[in-house]
């Protein structure tokens, strides 16, 4: 069981590294990502699939396996695109599991 857990952590390590630096690379003040953007969220997730602490920006939406995936800012798009299929599945599942935004 410990080996399986270690493999899981190692598989998610690149995703975690992306999460740490997501909004900072956009030139956008990271505090802007923490604020809820106006608009209707029509994505499977309400929190960003890359930066789990940030709410989805309703204008930054991607398609993944027939689902709409929301991100917090344009800077997260290239980070999402660099993920493997398994990492994308895990990131989206984690964002969905976080549940609805709590104000």
List the helices and strands and how they pair.
Layout: H1 2-21, H2 30-34, E1 61-64, E2 67-70, H3 76-82, H4 85-97
Antiparallel strand pairs: 1-2
Can you give a write-up of this model?
The protein has 103 residues and is mainly alpha-helical. The protein has one domain (2-97). It has 4 helices and 2 strands; from the N terminus they run ααββαα. The chain has helices at residues 2-21, 30-34, 76-82, 85-97; strands at 61-64, 67-70. It has a two-stranded antiparallel sheet with strand order 1-2. The longest helix has 20 residues, at 2-21. The protein starts with a helix and ends in a 6-residue tail after the last helix.
Low-confidence stretches: 15-22
> Helix tally?
4
Give the count of structural domains. Answer: 1
Number of strands: 2
Can you tag this structure with a few keywords?
single chain, mainly alpha, 103 residues, 4 helices, 44% helix
């Amino acid at each position: 069981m410990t080996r399986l857990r270690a493999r899981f952590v190692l598989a998610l390590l690149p995703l975690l590294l992306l999460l740490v630096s997501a909004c900072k690379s956009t030139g956008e003040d990271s505090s802007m990502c923490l604020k809820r953007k106006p608009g209707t969220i029509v994505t499977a997730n309400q929190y960003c699939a890359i930066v789990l602490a940030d709410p989805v920006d309703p204008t930054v939406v991607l398609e993944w396996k027939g689902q709409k995936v929301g991100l917090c800012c344009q800077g997260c798009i290239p980070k999402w695109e660099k993920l493997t299929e398994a990492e994308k599945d895990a990131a989206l599942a984690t964002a969905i599991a976080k549940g609805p935004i709590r104000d």
